[in-house]
Amino acid sequence: MKGFYYHNPTKLSFGKSTEERLGKLLGDNHNRILLHYGGGSIKRSGLYDKVVDILKEMNIEVFELSGVEPNPKLNLVRKGIEICKENDITFVLAVGGGSVIDSAKAIAIGALSNEDIWKFFTDGIDVSDALPVGVILTIPATGSESSPSTVITNEDGMLKRSLDSDLIRPEFAILNPELTLTLPDNQTFAGIMDIISHVLERYFTQTDHVDLTDNLCEATLRSTINNAYRLKENTMNLDARAEIMLSGTIAHNGILGIGREEDWASHRIGHELSALYGTTHGVTLSIIFPAWMKYVYKENLDRFVRFAIEVFRVDGEGKTLEEIALEGIKEFESFLEDTNMPIRLSEIGISVDQFELMAKKCTNGGTIGSFKKINEQDVMNIFELAK
Amino acid sequence: MKGFYYHNPTKLSFGKSTEERLGKLLGDNHNRILLHYGGGSIKRSGLYDKVVDILKEMNIEVFELSGVEPNPKLNLVRKGIEICKENDITFVLAVGGGSVIDSAKAIAIGALSNEDIWKFFTDGIDVSDALPVGVILTIPATGSESSPSTVITNEDGMLKRSLDSDLIRPEFAILNPELTLTLPDNQTFAGIMDIISHVLERYFTQTDHVDLTDNLCEATLRSTINNAYRLKENTMNLDARAEIMLSGTIAHNGILGIGREEDWASHRIGHELSALYGTTHGVTLSIIFPAWMKYVYKENLDRFVRFAIEVFRVDGEGKTLEEIALEGIKEFESFLEDTNMPIRLSEIGISVDQFELMAKKCTNGGTIGSFKKINEQDVMNIFELAK
């Protein structure tokens, strides 16, 4: 196990109607806040009205910025920063899914800095301050509700880049699984793949002696897959929705990665697909992860054998280690197919044309990942396996 | 799953030599602190000198209070409160195991209150403020390093009582597994039983649809048991020491209980043994928990079947559910015996004399626990099973 530092002060308020606790969680310290959201879904569901009513009753002046799209864009972030600076905003409230939260986090950093916000994503400038962010989550997927990460896409050059800082862990996250009952299937299952990927990026490590977190990762994977099947049967199953919502937070609050070297190559490769084609994050992962697995499993066969046996209960009787490992990857692909997730680029109409460009952009002359250090040619090979 | 609120802001600094980060974790805000510890072991190990050197170099004025015993006593807490009040102490640093931390937490509450500290334990007074507490952990066991709990024994009447408040979650916990290498076997394995008991108190629930946390509990139990056996083979195995230290924190940071009704009857019963006979906390649990299991398993047979299969890999082939459940309890007892933990009161020389008194004290005319509500007669019956 490696040494680690872990600090996650996000307050989680979980359960039916917990959005009603918004006032209590906000406290008395903020009278000018930015309400940040996507489009009409929170208006149609009535959540928008509920939130605005609570804020008005608290005599909070609300500044609104809507229009966050999947793979949230830098331009809107800049707009949010401007609103915050012009109006002395002291709190950013994100109501939506991971894109809205990530956009809110970037705004929160930019609002208290004179640097251009994009430089934080590209030049490795340390975040020294940020406005507090609160979250009302409507899509379980990115885990951004208690993570220190934000991922933003710069339309200029179509660059999708991430940034980590403990200063942008949200102050609170309101998690009401009822709000997720009406999610369309594609968002539900792309979200679930995103959740699973956050565990996998931590699970596939070369760090030795990480037995406890191995077990916790496998536990989260099994439960998430189990509840995905329950939602496949009936998307209105509130108990399964609750489990998935909690899985999303656990998968990416950092606990599953403590003491482990994490990987994240699949995320980096997937980001290139989103940047260039606008592909949904979870879809990029369901295509790239199985291909990455096939490409790297020989780097630590035992780990892939353990994955097969502990997560998918593959019966090893009479099989070679390699056969067991490959059966685990196959089971994972079957699960993705069962939840109608694409596992090949061809299924979403992406051909070989831009493989080289994307491979170059995401490795940028170096390597990504740690389970196996992946260079430009490796990324090309992974795209080939994902064709 | 039940709704829940969860907030754990304790900073974890884990790994070799992490006590060297003490200064960074303390920051610049405190120039008068109370250093609280037990006896000579931290002096013999050199930890005391290291800590004092760091504090002196920071020009922090150090007030010392040593002498914390297992099952920490109210009188010493009162003494600590006095020192804090007289000297305008702003921070309590606990260097030791759970008893030292619990004592420090009680001092931290009392230092900022005009109420008698014992009233917080008996009269249900809400904690409204407390000094910040920091921890350098030397015994993995109680999980107090990031929990909201403290347990104190009042010598007057030999009452052992607990108190919960998010305000006493430590600000930071320094977790260096090297510091645990020299622990004597009895402390090592009593600590491990304590860790396991924190999971069991959450695992045995009547709350439905808690699949994710069920899995996380089982994962923690399996890993803890596995690493206990590794330590049985070689107590100097640093990797296993690290896993156990991390398990201790995970088992009691609250995550394994979110959304679940917890039980805690076995703890309450065990506290009476400690109060009356001074029995080590972990020893009381290794005696009471198996007896409690035998007494309550029929309340939810399925859960005990799951426990047997998922934690101890009991083979259910051809057996009734009851047989599987009982085999799980038997396996648990075998594990305790393998780690030289007593599982009967007679093994530690406690006879039936005080059963009635203890049963009366711990139920106090009402019931304890939630998996099965346990009254005075039930406690008597559990003592009988533990004879």
Describe this protein's structure.
The structure is a homodimer of 387-residue chains. Chain A is α/β, with parallel strands linked by helices and 387 residues long. Chain A folds into 2 domains: 11-179, 3-Layer(aba) Sandwich (Rossmann fold); 183-385, Dehydroquinate synthase-like - alpha domain (Dehydroquinate synthase-like, alpha domain, Up-down Bundle). Chain A is built from 15 helices and 9 strands. Chain A has helices at 22-26, 41-44, 47-57, 74-86, 98-110, 117-122, 185-203, 211-233, 238-252, 265-277, 281-296, 301-312, 321-338, 355-363, 376-385, and strands at 4-6, 11-14, 32-37, 61-65, 91-96, 133-137, 149-154, 159-164, 172-175. In chain A, strands 2-9-6-5-3-4 form a 6-stranded parallel sheet, sandwiched between helices. A two-stranded antiparallel sheet of chain A has the order 7-8. In chain A, strand 7 (149-154) and strand 8 form a beta hairpin. In chain A, helix 7 (185-203) packs parallel to helix 9 (238-252) and helix 14 (355-363) packs across helix 15 (376-385). The longest helix of chain A is centred in the middle third of the chain and has 23 residues, at 211-233. The mean pLDDT of chain A is 97. The interface between A and B is large, with 42 and 42 residues. Strand 2 (11-14) of chain A pairs antiparallel with strand 1 (4-6) of chain B, so a sheet runs across the interface.
